[in-house]
Amino acid sequence: MNTLTIWWDTAADGPTNMAADECLAAEAERRGSLLMRFYDWSTTTISLGGFQKIEDANRVGVIRGVPLVRRPSGGGAIVHGSDLTYAAAVPKSHPWGASPQAFYDALHGAMVESLAQHGIDARPYPAAGTLPPGGDGAVGSDARMVPDESRFFCFDRRAAGDLVMAGPTEGTFSKIMGSAQRRLAGVVLQHGSLLLHSNTSVDGAARHRGVADLLAEQRPIDRVALSRAWGRRIATALGGSLHEQGASFLSAHQHDIAALALRFREDRWTARR
Amino acid sequence: MAADLKFAKTHEWVRSEANGVNTVGISSYAVEALTDLVFMQLPPVGKKVKAGESFGEIESVKAVSDLYAPISGEIVEVNTALPGKLETLGKDPYGEGWVVRIKADNPAELDNLLDRGAYESLVGSQPH
Prior knowledge:
The complex is a heterodimer. By secondary structure, chain A is an alpha/beta fold. Chain A has helices at about 15-30, 55-60, 100-115, 210-215, 225-240, 250, 255-265, 265-270; strands spanning about 5-10, 35-40, 45-50, 70, 80, 85-90, 120-125, 165, 175-185, 185-195, 240-245. Chain A has a single domain, classed as BirA Bifunctional Protein, domain 2 (2-Layer Sandwich). Chain A is built from 8 helices and 11 strands. Chain B has 3 helices and 9 strands, in the order βββαβββββαβα. Chain B is an alpha+beta fold. The two termini of chain B are about 20 Å apart. In chain B, strand 6 and strand 7 form a beta hairpin. Chain B has a single domain (about 5-125), classed as CATH 2.40.50.100. Chain B is globular and about 35 Å long. In chain B, the strands form 2 sheets. In chain B, strands 1-2-3-9-8-5 form a 6-stranded antiparallel sheet. The interface of A and B includes residues 72, 73 and 182 of A.
């Protein structure tokens, strides 16, 4: 119950990654413990939230030509390619599986500590009830960010527990990390994205500032070192042990993943809403 | 919480009505845990469902959750007003917040569900 097992995977396309995450969820339920997978994308890809409308994606002209995949999890669209993408799965019987906020806060809290270890000051976006009079005064605000699910991109939305950093001008901030879940009968799958830097493959509204863009001094962010530090912090928060896997999750489950990926390749899945 | 309700471990409640029809909804515990509901997708009338299978989806700010059929049968009525008034799920989860009505294939399946006391023990043991 108190172990965390982590895989680092090579780049794959959207349907393969979504299928691998479903496979990860099934494996977490079978093992009865927390599993995580870090992965990359073979090309810049946009993942749509489970409830987003395909016509909303079609209206966002700046993403035309970029491959789309629909996640099973909720939340807004994410442009992948310059982010640290993860999937984490935990059985519902696990203390972190019982409520959406518990799992969300556990992982994001550990990321705040890991970023601090790398000299990066991020903080969770406060819950609505804890905002001081005047709204966002505690952390400043970015004009593009409103508490409105109609915003197409994840990084234009905000919810309690999202991670934010101070923006380029005083009194503003930017969202750098968001996560969303799919809650199944016996297991919770959580997807999330830490935006490391802006994605130059897209323009306009699709391009958001990432961690590197918000730092006072220019420096690269070592995604592997950061993800390993995060894994250790999560294991500590869990009060358990960490098992880092040398082999790829994709390779170990390639036949199951290939079969599951067929659904995510179908237009009727991508355009189901 | 009315005493005549039965519950699935996946947090759907069932109230048996006349003629083998059963009203199904979502427990107040589940609604509270999900917080900030934003979308809901319900099945069409006439859809056949099996106990334990997903018959709909509900999205909160952070999560998409499946709604699971507590019994097998046919969906004979859907609360079509609900997706436009999701706050009803929180205000009156066991009344106006009902979700679907299912004509049971096998009423004996109701015996597999939890009574109120057993359900309260289940959710009482789960961390919030």
